[in-house]
TrEMBL record, chain B:
Repeat found in the keyword field: no
Keywords: Cell membrane, Membrane, Transmembrane, Transmembrane helix, Transport
Protein name: ABC transporter permease
Cell location: Cell membrane
Organism (species): Marinobacter confluentis
Length: 678, 305
């Protein structure tokens, strides 16, 4: 190491621990980790929830919650040791000045009662003797840099007047006010839509190069880290289990946890609709001491030694090591093969089974009248405009779009919960509004996004799952319970949780319970509304595998609403892309994903960050944010953001057109492919 | 902001009208005013005479609008008992109550806010424990007892302040302490929990990451957010105090609106009681309106709503 390293290293952390005392014991959130960051580089810290990655970031600047206790051998930042710095020194010399920080929740991370301008300026005036006007000049300059149009007038706005993406841009500008040497970004894009995520990551990269900043990027998304980080540290249960250059770690993962995580990511191996590798079990309790390897209980290769002895740190080269006993070494290719074999056991041709249309949405439009304030005019909000869609028996149709595009209104309409202004929904040849509610509920069932709030906390899992049978008065109490136990077995819930309450279950188990409740009536169509977006990757993989298995076993048809394109790639037979209440493109998955016709689909696919180290985050080439549905642009609703828009697009709305078996609504669809690629 | 003020103003007027109608109806239907004035044992002719004389035989709507019209012009009628205009009575008694209310509100603010803030800054410390136990005791001690204790201590044993009356500012010191102390628990607790809530929010973490700490973090970042609920509760507390604090005024023999209200109730002085109730309620309506406007000024989300 020595002198050569110290000239390039900006941050050197040795033996950092964070302990949080609880009522009964102590939670070890971070367990003696060591990290190093080189000047001008990006270090990605990857891990699932509870792995200690955010705690690590907060510990650097001593911003931990009051109860948490930090201990560290050394946190050397530019040669000075932050472990001995007082609160006063940290606040006046380091925080916001030399180290900037961006947080995950743009919606709550800005002070709601002060204007954007004040919050930007005070970051600078707090630390430096600059005049208001100088600070304002810098604020305007940075707002322009982060891509907020009309920055001077933005200064007077308040956080609630901005969208999530805009607020995150303000956060970034705020962190850059004093030209920090180090930027810590804690899940900076997790709460944002894909195109906005790509914009923000692209922007961070540009700014980093321009200002010569070093960066710590904390994320759970391996796709993000593969493109944005130079080095990766993989955290599990408060420890770094593997670290090294991004390409080396992702292409040749050595720790079984890293390998397992990668296998969990849909589309990592470039194959679809086969079983994902899943990591069984859940993260162990972080209290007390762990004997042996923390991952042993979930590791497919664990031997006896893993459960008793602390695993050794094995260095492969400078800055590249992993922590593992390596029992019975197995290369990742082998595990991939077993996953593939498992996949082959499921009938591969099920996707090809072209059934009859089971659900038809025909020309559905829906407009809400929204009134702002007591004396405000009622304004129309067109949530859906002439939407048509067909769902065939046995297929998975993915519905993709950003927040506010009308996905929820569409699914509500399909379930008969929202009456459309015009158009019709037909289920099994019968108009949905003519179906008795009970029969409709039997045939169509939803699975919601958040398993934490979609299950009644005061009912047991058994009661929740049997409820539909009770409502429909099917069978005796004993028969209902027996049926519930059968379903629980089917969705992989241990029957001992029958009398448990939702808060006693893990997130994955809760989602299994929600799936069980949806399936107990033997529905024809299941509406999956972002069923895995609240879950960790390893759990997401388990749930996606389960949903595909159940489709084959119970002959189900899925409408799969998601914003995660790698999930689409993994699950869907066909894809429908929605923008501002219209289906702009709909066709076979491979057709839509590899050869998109609509410029919006094109931008979406560009924003999808699959794991590919060595590639950077692409610029999605979209101008601006998702528009307010209250102010629909004239002509083609996409034209203000479209790189190909011309006079015709601005004036006339395009109609649906069939090109190569794909339904597209775009004037430029025939030529867009070649134009956008160039 | 303008539409917000307009909207809230109209709502306040609507509430005031509803209340005025309620007050009117209560007295004209729950009791027979003519009988009350004449007395329980008065002969029927006398009651009828009074009914005609006072106009109680006219249709209810006419009586209501007549009463509302004169009230709006500042004519609250004539007191049956004191035989003078109610307006004059209120003018005589209001200054004592208003002075006492404002002084005691200052006492509340001066004790509750610093205590609540220091408790929130160091939760579960000795400051916090002290603040919470102060709150519990202040809540448990009855007003009249605290008043008597203060009189014994500061007027009898150490004769620093006068025992009773309302002639000089010195007369107001002890009653203000008593009345002010009664509001301390509610305001203190709200300050503490409100500030604790704000201090654990994401935007305060952002502010700390920007380099804010100490009093700047509290005053320049957190306080404005924490003030919103405090403003609302202070308005209600001030309303209670302006509504006449019967016990405190009695203990210290002060001639305020509380005493006036009690005496007019005992003497069935309907015009006075009716006017006082209307004034108390309107005070509440106005204070709530004021609190809402202050909060709108503090929080852009409310004023742009």
């Amino acid at each position: 190491m020595g002198s050569e390293m110290s000239t390039t290293s900006i941050l050197d952390i040795q033996n950092l621990s964070v302990d949080i005392p609880t009522d009964s014991s102590t939670l070890h959130a971070v367990r003696g980790i060591s990290l190093e960051l080189n000047r001008g580089e990006t270090l990605g810290i990857v891990g699932e929830s509870g792995s200690g990655k955010s705690m690590t970031a907060l510990a650097l600047m001593n911003l931990l919650p009051p109860a948490a206790k930090r201990s560290a051998g050394c946190i050397s930042f530019e040669g000075s040791d932050l472990t001995h710095a007082t609160e006063q020194e940290l606040a006046s010399k380091i925080r916001g000045q030399r180290i900037g920080m961006i947080f995950q929740e743009p919606m709550t991370s800005l002070n709601p009662v002060y204007s954007i301008g004040r919050q930007l300026k005070e970051t600078m005036t707090l630390h430096r003797k600059v005049s208001e006007s100088e600070a304002e000049k810098r604020a305007i300059y940075l707002l322009e840099k982060v891509g907020l149009p009309d920055p001077a007038s933005r200064l007077k706005q308040y956080p609630h007047e901005l969208s999530g993406g805009q607020r995150q841009r303000v956060m970034i500008a705020m962190a850059l006010m004093n030209e920090p040497e180090l930027l810590i970004a804690d899940e900076p894009t997790t709460a944002l839509d894909v195109t906005i995520q790509a914009q923000i990551l692209h922007l961070l990269r540009e700014l980093q190069q321009e200002f010569g900043m070093s960066m710590i990027l904390i994320t759970h998304d391996l796709g993000v880290v593969s493109r944005a980080a130079d080095h990766i540290a993989v955290m599990y249960a408060g420890d770094i289990v593997e670290t090294g250059r991004t390409a080396e770690v992702l292409e040749d993962p050595r720790h079984p946890y890293t390998q397992g995580l990668l296998e969990c990511v849909p589309g990592y191996r470039g194959t679809s609709q086969q079983r994902l590798g899943a990591i069984p079990g859940i993260v162990p309790a972080m209290t007390g001491t762990i004997s042996g390897c923390a991952f042993a209980s979930r590791c497919p290769r664990a031997a006896d030694i893993c459960k008793t002895d602390t695993p050794p740190t094995k260095a492969l080269q400078q800055g590249r090591y992993f922590v593992c006993h390596e029992p019975n070494i197995q290369t990742p290719e082998n595990t991939a093969n077993t996953a593939r074999e498992a996949a082959n056991q499921t009938p591969e041709d099920s996707a090809l089974k072209k059934g009859e249309p089971i659900l038809t949405v025909d020309g559905v439009s829906c407009t809400f009248m929204v009134r702002r304030g007591l004396f405000g005019k009622r304004k129309p909000l067109q949530a859906m405009d002439n939407v048509s869609l067909t769902l065939n028996k046995g297929e998975v149709l993915a519905l993709v779009g950003e927040s506010g595009c009308g996905k929820s209104t569409l699914t509500r309409t399909i379930m008969g919960l929202q009456k459309p202004d015009s158009g019709s929904v037909t289920l099994n040849g019968r108009r949905i509004e003519n179906l008795p509610p009970m029969e409709r509920a039997r045939m169509i069932q939803p699975i919601f996004q958040d398993p934490y709030s979609s299950l009644n906390p005061r009912k047991t899992i058994g009661e929740i799952i049997t409820k539909p049978l009770a409502v429909h008065r099917i069978g005796s109490r004993q028969e209902q319970h027996a049926q519930a136990r059968r379903i629980m077995e089917l969705v992989g819930l241990p029957t001992r949780v029958f009398n448990s309450y939702p808060d006693q279950l893990s997130g994955g188990q809760r989602q299994r319970a929600a799936i069980g409740r949806a399936l107990i009536m033997n529905p024809e169509v299941v509406i999956c509304d972002e069923p895995t977006s609240a879950l960790d990757v390893s759990v997401q993989a388990q749930i996606l595998n389960l949903l595909l298995d159940l489709r084959d076993e119970m002959d189900l048809t899925y409408l799969f609403v998601t914003h995660n394109l790698s999930v689409v790639q993994h699950m869907a037979d066909r894809v429908a892309v929605m923008y501002l209440g219209e289906i702009v493109e709909c066709g076979d998955r491979d057709q839509v994903m590899t050869d998109p016709k609509h410029p919006y689909t094109h931008a979406l696919m560009d924003s999808a960050l699959s794991i590919s180290p060595g590639e950077t985050v692409p610029d999605p080439g979209l101008a601006g944010d998702f528009p307010n549905p209250m102010n629909r642009p004239s002509g083609c609703p996409f034209h203000p953001r479209c790189p190909l828009a011309d006079q015709q697009c601005r004036e006339q709305a395009p109609g649906p057109e069939l090109i190569d078996n794909t339904l597209v609504q775009c004037w430029k669809a025939k030529t867009s492919g070649s134009q956008l690629k160039s | 902001m303008f539409t917000y003020i307009l909207r809230r103003g109209l709502m306040a007027i609507l509430v005031a009208l509803t209340v005025s109608f309620g007050t009117f109806a209560l007295f004209h239907y729950a009791t027979d005013p003519a009988q009350t004035i004449a007395g329980e044992d008065a002969p029927q002719e006398m009651v009828d005479d009074i009914r005609e004389q006072y106009g109680f035989d006219r249709p209810a709507a006419v009586q209501y609008f007549d009463w509302l019209g004169s009230t709006l012009q500042g004519d609250f009628g004539e007191s049956y008992f004191w035989k003078q205009p109610v307006v004059q009575l209120i003018k005589d008694h209001a200054p004592v109550t208003i002075t006492l209310a404002l002084a005691s509100l200052s006492v509340t603010i001066l004790i509750a806010l610093p205590l609540g803030i220091s408790a929130a800054l160091k939760p579960n410390s000795w400051v916090d424990r002290f603040a919470l136990s102060t709150a519990v005791s202040a809540q448990a001690i009855p007003n009249f007892w605290l008043g008597l204790m203060l009189i014994i201590l500061f007027a009898v044993t150490f004769p620093i302040f006068p025992v009773s009356g309302d002639a000089t500012w010195r007369h107001f010191v002890l009653p203000s302490l008593v009345l002010g102390a009664s509001s301390v628990p509610a305001v203190m607790r709200l300050t503490r929990t409100g500030l604790l809530d704000v201090l654990s929010s994401d935007y305060i973490r952002t502010a700390r990451a920007k380099g804010f700490m100490g009093y700047r973090l509290i005053l320049q970042q957190a306080m404005r957010n924490a003030l919103l609920p405090i403003v609302s509760v202070l308005a209600v507390q001030l309303g209670n105090k302006l509504g006449g604090s019967v016990v405190t005024e009695s203990v210290f023999s002060m001639n305020g609106l509380g005493r006036l209200a009690v005496e007019s109730i005992f003497n069935s002085d309907i015009p006075t009681v009716q006017s006082l109730i209307l004034i108390f309620v309107l005070t509440f309506v106005l204070l709530t309106l004021a609190a809402d406007l202050i909060n709108a000024w503090l929080d852009p989300r409310i004023r742009m709503g």
